[in-house]
Amino acid sequence: MADRQTLRDAPTPSPEDNPGYPRLTRPVEGRLVAGVAQGAAEQLRLDPVVLRLTFVLLTMANGLGAVAYAALWLFTPQREHEGPPPSRDWSQLAAFGAIAFALLAIGWLTGSPGSPNQSITAWPVAVAGIGALILWQQADPNRRQRWMRGASSGAGKNRVRTVLGMALVVIGAIGVLAAEGGLAQARNALLFTAVVVGGLILIATPWLAGLWKELRQERRERIRQEERAEMAAHVHDSVLHTLTLIQRNAHDSREVSRLARAQERELRNWLYQPKQDADATLAAAVRRVAAEEEDAHGVPIEVVCVGDRPLDPQLSAILQAARQAMVNAAKYSESPVVSVYAEAEPEEITIFVRDRGKGFDLDAVPADRMGIRQSIIGRMERHGGTARIRTEPGEGTEVMLTMKLETQ
Amino acid sequence: MSLVKVLIVDDHRLFRAGVRAELGNAVEVVGEAEDVESAVAEIARLQPDVVLLDVHMPGGGGQEVLRRVLGSGAQVRFLALSVSDAADDVIGVIRGGARGYVTKTISGRELADAIRRVAEGDAVFSPRLAGFVLDAFASTEAPPIDPELDSLTQREREVLRLIARGYAYKEIARELFISVKTVETHVSSVLRKLQLSNRHELSRWANARRLV
Fold first, then answer.
1. Is the Cβ pair A339, B165 closer than 8 Å?
2. Domain containing B182: what range?
3. pLDDT, tens digit, for every residue of B131-172?
4. ipTM > 0.90?
5. CATH code, domain with B106
6. Which UniProt keywords apply (chain B) (predicted)?
7. pLDDT band, very low/low/confident/very high, at B128 (cuts 50, 70, 90)
8. If DSSP codes are grouped into helix, strand and coil, which group holds residue A350?
9. Residues B85, B212: Cα–Cα separation, whole Å
10. Which of A23, A62, A356, B145 suits A41 as a labelling partner, its CA being 20 to 30 A distant?
11. A133 or B44: whose pLDDT is higher?
């Protein structure tokens, strides 16, 4: 793991790595309902009981506590936890329930705190507050600091704009106050309200724009870092690993070339191949079979595929026969390389396996040698295909497999 | 016949040295170049018969060298030599004017043979390139615009198939009862179609499929 870390070597420490300010998460240990209060208390360094009481009180006042709790529950990720979830402290939960019930009873008896009027006026404020809260807890501490910094530096740089905006706000506010005298002056009031809003926009726009830009940039940066990390992980798991193995097997040239071939093939697939399932198409399956036999026997198998089609059970016989032909070529031919050519046409599939090895006399093969008679010729014929073998001592061998496709 | 003069263009020094050693005395290696700029300059200065061209290089790659040298009307011949398996790279250099494409795993003897062929004006297809070409011309979704250029004859198809199956030109000639010269004629004809065909599927296919 240590070397993977150095490989990644991110130029800026990512915010998640900052140990001092963890992002708000919901822990599983010590939770009563969903762990919101527990998590928030850890971050604010308060006793969770204080927060729990606050939630209960706010709920009793006008339902705000419950809404805030639900919102935080929704937007806060649960902290990862291994092992079985610990059981909740039901007695504590019961105590909070009792407090809530008592408060509700008092409220109902006196008729004051929970009255409908009050909650209606409080709602817009509550919604805005919850929104701000969510925004705040979604941000990690570094970003929060940058927000604050961005806001203050922006204000510093555009002093004229800020002053102008402030002035507009003040004028607007005076105007509203002055206009409040009579209904006749409602037009003026409206005008001045517009001025207030304009002023606020003037103040806030550069800050919001900067914020937006920064968020986008950060997202891009994160995507780049993720790609880089994936690349590093891949290089580590494959190439570096293989290089280590090669060094260790330096005395065994056959093993070294096998390792290098396997790595080359794997890297090529990763770089140039579309992400595909080896069991989904014929070409992919042929390549996979060739790769497996190449690994098993240490002889390079060059594959060329033309056309492709979805893999179905019909094709498994020709694939198995082709595999057997590759095994024979790799094991017995003494050829330095085996060529495989697979072509998928609309009505038929052909696969050729060719080596330039020593070849053999087909008629002299004993009847009990299963490889060719049974696994190749017999299998193809049983499944409605044909297999032809062309070989002569010293001339190499070519196995030609053909399978007509049943067209639906 | 005098030895073929060869210039090796590749950005890896070790690879150039390896190729030089493998070729031995079969051809005359007159020089080396490591990027697009020096390749263009050395080709003008040394007038080689054949340039062994790497596909991926700093400064625009093999395609840029082809564009600048062939664009100026020089008569030098190119053989692309690469580890790349991406179909668009391969088709790209061939359409850019290279007379053949072989992969870097080729043996020294085969490479010398390929260089001689290219020097004589023939085309050199590796099994992989033959597979690419068959695949590109096989897609028949759009009707050919120019029937002469946009499709392969039956014989050309047979020759390409045998190349893809790993046959040498001599073996193909024996297999099809034709002369080696006729095999070369077919391959050159395929090369011409590949370079001149406007069949939009060629480029579209090369970009979309990236098949090996």
1. yes
2. 125-212
3. 888 887 775 555 555 666 667 888 888 999 999 888 888 889
4. no
5. 3.40.50.2300
6. DNA-binding, Phosphoprotein, Transcription, Transcription regulation
7. confident
8. strand
9. 6
10. A62
11. B44
Q: What's the number of domains chain B is made of?
A: 2
- pTM as predicted: 0.57
What is the predicted pLDDT for the residue at A18? 44
Mark which of B121, B138, B168 sits at the end of a domain. B121
- Give the pLDDT score at A277: 61
Q: What are phi and psi of B97, to 5 degrees?
A: 125, 0
Yes or no, beta carbons of B211 and A268 under 8 Å apart? no
When CB atoms are compared, the residue of B86, B135, B167 closest to A306 is B135
Tell me the nearest-neighbour CA distance from B135 into chain A, angstroms: 5
Strand partners for B50: B6, B77
Domain of B153, CATH number, reads: 1.10.10.10
User: What are residue A402's phi and psi, to 5 degrees?
Assistant: -130, 140
Say which of A274, A306, A356 has its CB closest to residue B164. Answer: A306
- Average pLDDT of chain B? 81
What is the per-residue pLDDT across B88-117, written as a single tens digit (0 to 9) for each? 778 888 888 888 888 877 888 888 888 988
User: Which residue ranges does chain A devote to CATH 3.30.565.10?
Assistant: 277-404
Cβ contact B212–A303 (<8 Å) = yes
Tokens of B10: 């590749």
Kindly state whether residues B112 and B139 are assigned to the same domain: no
Task: Give yes or no: residues B2 and B102 share one domain.
Answer: yes
Q: In residues, how long is chain B?
A: 212
Among residues A160, A177, A170, A179, the alpha carbon closest in space to that of A200 is found at A170
Question: Cβ of B170 under 8 Å from any chain A Cβ?
Answer: no
Within chain A, what is the greatest distance between any pair of CA atoms?
117
Nearest 5°: CA angle at A149, between A148 and A150?
Answer: 90
> What CATH architecture is A277-404?
2-Layer Sandwich (3.30)
Q: How far apart are CA A205 and CA A211, in angstroms?
A: 10
8 Å CB contact between A189 and A176: yes
One domain for residues B38 and B91:
yes
Q: Are B152 and B81 contained in the same domain?
A: no
* Residues of chain A that touch chain B, judged by Cβ-Cβ distance less than 8 Å: 268, 271-274, 283, 287, 300, 302-308, 339, 341, 343, 352, 354, 356, 398
Q: Select from B121, B139, B164 the last residue of a domain.
A: B121
CA distance A80 to A35: 12
Distance between CA atoms of residues A181 and A179, nearest Å: 5
The pLDDT of residue B75 is above 70: yes
Beta-carbon separation of A354 and B164 below 8 A: no
B97 and B164 in a single domain? The answer is: no
Specify the higher pLDDT residue, A119 or B194: B194
Average pLDDT over every residue of B37-51: 89
Q: Confirm if A401 and A325 have CB atoms less than 8 A apart.
A: yes
Q: Is the pLDDT of residue B55 over 80?
A: yes
B27 and B72 in a single domain? The answer is yes
* Alpha-helical regions (H) of A180-281: 186-235, 241-248, 253-272
* Candidates A300, A305, A341; nearest CB to B211: A305
- Give me the helix-helix angle, B200-209 and B127-138, nearest 10°: 120
Is B7 in the same domain as B75?
yes
Co-location of B18 and B89 in the same domain: yes
CB A308 within 8 A of CB A316: no
CA of A65, closest CA in chain B: separation in Å?
Answer: 55
